[in-house]
Design goal:
3-stranded mixed beta sheet; about 25% helix; about 25% strand
């Protein structure tokens, strides 16, 4: 049967948090093995365990209601606190234990790198393969990442005996305690490099320029980033390489703009061509394509060429090419042209025009509707 935690600390059930803390400190000094001698470890752990429960308001309330069984799994060592942690803090190597984590490896992960890559709109539509040159760190070719001059090897640290850590006795409120800290002679590695590589100065890596092939995915947007695992800098001590992040920057095109998976462009036709109809040929990314301007085409009309837009990212379908039609009105007319237009106006009953004003109508409203503004 477990002893009553209040009896272990020698306090009353209604003791305040401060009274519990004072009792624990007093008992911890008295039961510390450096003070009480060998054989006091169990008593010290019992005191620490009782204090762990009674110093936590939630655990104490559960203990008061149902005893130790009410704590379930909460009575043992929890994250960051527990009698085992306290015991190891005080005794450390007193039991002959070395650093539980062992020496720190020299190899550390390298840094990630971010490289901008300019591409044109055609590459964003279809994708491409590009080569980029980056200034990065690679494994030292002279020492192959060992950090030592060829023919030599690291020497076991004499200060810590290869453990990577040292233990010292310090005084505290609880008396003398044993602390563990990284060895300052080998910086926790457990070994010392007495003859570093002349090429990398013992870093295990050197800087150089390297060419990397980048697959530009079809449909990539301006500002998008592509992560290339393991293509970044090699870490110190020939540690794992970081990642390379390529940021795509799409250059503006002189004829086309992008809207999602669609391409947009505009063509300007004379008034007569819009009225009578015509066929235009425009250069697209897929070669020349015909655009039919139907008779009576109005300014702002849109002709859609299916499947000539941008490839949807990581899919095989493409958007459309939308051609906006702008009708050019004649700025100057000679006498004959004016006469003919006047005759046409009379034939159509348009020589006397009453303006029709409607909110939201007109070319600009239709254009905004087409492009989704």
């Amino acid at each position: 049967m477990s002893r009553n935690y209040y009896d272990v600390l020698g306090v009353a059930r209604n003791a305040s948090a401060e009274e519990i803390k004072r009792a624990y400190r007093k008992l911890a000094r008295e039961t510390h093995p450096d003070v009480a001698g060998p054989g006091s470890e169990d008593r010290f752990k019992e005191v620490a365990h009782a204090y762990e429960v009674l110093s936590d308001p939630e655990k104490r309330q559960m203990y008061d209601l149902g005893g130790e069984s009410a704590l379930g799994g909460m009575g043992g060592s929890g994250p960051g606190f527990g009698f085992q942690d306290i015991f190891e803090t005080f005794f450390g190597a007193a039991a002959g234990a070395a650093n539980p984590r062992g020496p720190v490896p020299r190899g550390r992960r390298g840094q990630d790198a971010l490289v901008p890559l300019e591409i044109d709109l055609r590459e964003a539509v279809f994708g491409s393969t590009r080569e980029i040159t980056v200034n990065t760190a690679i494994v030292c070719p002279t020492c192959s990442g060992t950090c030592c001059r060829p023919g030599t090897s690291p020497r076991t640290c004499e200060a810590c005996g290869g453990r990577g850590s040292v233990q010292r006795v310090a005084r505290s409120l609880l008396g003398q305690i044993m602390t563990t800290s990284p060895c300052s002679a080998c910086h926790g590695h457990g070994t010392v490099i007495t003859d570093p590589c002349p090429e990398c100065s013992g870093d295990g890596r050197v800087r150089t320029r390297r060419t990397i092939t980048v697959e530009v995915p079809a449909g990539v947007e301006n500002g998008a980033r592509l992560r290339m695992p393991g293509q970044g800098e090699v870490g110190p001590g020939a540690g794992p390489a970081g990642d390379l992040h390529v940021e795509f920057r799409v250059r503006p095109h002189d004829r086309f703009t992008r809207s999602g998976d669609d391409l947009l462009c505009s063509v300007t036709v004379p008034m007569t061509a819009a009225a009578l109809g015509t066929v235009l040929t425009i250069d697209t990314f897929d070669g020349p394509r015909e655009v039919t301007i139907r008779p009576g085409t109005q300014p702002g009309h849109t002709e859609v060429l299916k499947g000539l837009g941008v490839t949807r990212l990581y899919h095989h379908v493409r958007g459309d090419l939308k051609v906006f039609v702008d009708v050019e009105m004649p700025a100057r007319l000679d006498d004959r042209q004016r006469e003919l237009l006047g005759e046409l106006a009379r034939l159509r009953g348009e020589d006397r025009v009453e303006p029709r004003v409607t909110a939201g109508s007109g070319m600009f409203a239709r254009l905004k509707e087409k492009i989704g503004l």
